[in-house]
Specification:
This protein is α/β, with parallel strands linked by helices. It has 4 helices and 10 strands, in the order αβαββββββββααβ. It has one domain: Peptidase S8/S53 domain (Rossmann fold, 3-Layer(aba) Sandwich), CATH 3.40.50.
Amino acid sequence: METRILLLLDAGAVVVAAAGNDALTYGYPPQPRIPADYEDVLCVAATDREGRRAGYSNHADIPLTGNCVATWGGQGVELNGQTVVPPGPEPRDGMVGAAVEPTIVTPYGTVPNTTGWVYWSGTSFATPIISAIAANLLAENEFQLRQGRTHHRLTPRGVMAQVLAMAGPAPDPAADPGAPYLKVSQQRY
């Protein structure tokens, strides 16, 4: 797998991967799963809405290799091997998304899905946020190249450095997500 990732990097692709949701299973935040564990892959850990490490989220490598960022992934709980957002008052701490399942698994049992929408959580929901930021950085760089405003093409490592530069310390040091924190929110229309 590492060879294929190196080929992607050589082609100019930025590889972004979820750290994993194993902390509830093991009782401590373990290292990121492969490929997020690789040095040249942008690793994404998850936080709750307030920037605290989500209870299920794996940490960045210790010591930090400088390849991991944490962002909102929702605060879920583990249920039957899945990370789910428990029902409760709005706003729930999860991303609103479409679901095709006729039922929803909750900590309180299985209930019918009457709306087609559910709340999702996990490092795999934080990862597309960081992927979109990386894609925007690449698109802006390409635009600048075509306009003649720069002669430098961003490398995957350059994109990773810019994403990490956008991040800062976690708002709650007691619940540090183990990586620089990038605050985001979901707009509801």
